[in-house]
Amino acid sequence: MFAYYFKLGVRSLRRNRFLTALMVLTLAVGVAASVSTLTILHMMSGDPIPDKSSRLLVPQFDNGPLQDYTPGVDPGDMQMSYIDASNLLKSGQGERRTVVYGVAAPLEPARKDLPALNTTGMGVTRDFFAMFNVPLMHGQAWSEADDARGADVMVLGRAMAEKLFGNSNPIGQRLRMMGAPFTVVGVADKWNPRPRYYKLVGGDTFGDADDFYIPFATAIRHEADLNGGISCSSKRDPGFASLLASECTWLQFWFETSSADRSELQSWLDGYTGEQRKLGRFKRNAPNKLYDVMEWMEKLKIVGNDSKLSVWLAFGFLALCLVNTIGLLLAKFSARAAEIGVRRALGASRREIFRQFLVETAVVGLAGGVLGLVLSFGALALLGMQGSSTAALARMDWQMLGMTFVLSVAAALLAGLLPTWRACQVTPAIQLKSQ
């Protein structure tokens, strides 16, 4: 009977076409508004690296002074000093380790027809590429020896490589940066996770891909300009050397461990902070913490309250559309009272009438879903025109694609419950006498 009722539902779309079109459009607009905003929220809050997000860990220390300190208050700063970053790199803890140092530097192309470019990149260790699943289009990451001696080597981002060298392989080419010739050893393929979870503090959360990657030791040796935030709880002397020796926090650190090693790493960090306190550091005696990727994004409130409020407002608009759809369905089903009376007189039960009209309502919801999907793509396209960062979020995956139809049909069925119930209450005798 479902197939028969479905055919009746498709045919009913051609009855009173203006009323049907109005219902489908009302439902589609509500679905498009809610799905487009929900898609943005979904892309912002989704797990950016689901295969290992629980194994990538950020340590947090509180190395601030005792002055103006209130015990139990979260320091909020998720970066660390050069002293701690260096110690953690040498610790051998975890399967892999990396520092993330945001760098800004002018880059001089080998081509004479191109001027010097203002570029931004990262000072990292070679483990960075394996830890965050960075794909390499050409070449490879630098060696451990390059890390240790701070070699003048770099991995270019794909966009920058194509800008400088077109489609040719640039491995072995030299580019001048920070007053030194850097040798290109690799080219990263398209990789720009949104949000940029590996460098959220002091960085552009939904910004463009990095132009280059160089060894962390190289960035330190060249005293590279910092592209990011820095927090100093006490005064320090001017100069890069004093920055390295200070308690200023400006570097991000990541560990990669196995799932079972998190508690072991936490114990080691507790021991490390204990040793540093004996040296006169970590005077606040605050507990250190570990955050995996999703915990860190939650702590830093990557998805703000304004984004969540937008979704609630969009679903409020969908509820308003449903109220209008209920009124239109009541009008449509009321006009078929005579038909319902005849069917009831011929032996159809109220349950069968309810099923028939509910299936017809689902057909309306399906039509609204198709139109809503088209409108959703249009809305996301308009949002994407606001900038490259928004464009990366304004895209619909298969999960949201399926949800569009589910939401549309569910909304139509919800709106159709009252009109369908009213249709079941038609008294056959009264309708037959009125004919």
UniProtKB/TrEMBL annotation:
Q: Does the keyword Secreted apply?
A: no
A Pfam family matched in the record: FtsX
Query: Where in or outside the cell is it found?
Result: Cell membrane
Membrane-spanning regions, if any? Answer: 309-331, 357-383, 398-418
One Gene Ontology cellular component annotation held by this UniProt entry: plasma membrane
Q: Which UniProt keywords apply?
A: Cell membrane, Membrane, Transmembrane, Transmembrane helix
Going by the entry's taxonomy, the superkingdom of the source organism is recorded as: Bacteria
Any idea which GO molecular function terms this record carries? transmembrane transporter activity
The residues covered by the ABC3 transporter permease C-terminal domain are 313-427
Residue intervals of the MacB-like periplasmic core domain: 20-223
Q: How does it sit in the membrane?
A: Multi-pass membrane protein
> Under what name is this protein listed?
FtsX-like permease family protein
Q: What is the lineage of its organism?
A: Bacteria, Pseudomonadati, Pseudomonadota, Betaproteobacteria, Burkholderiales
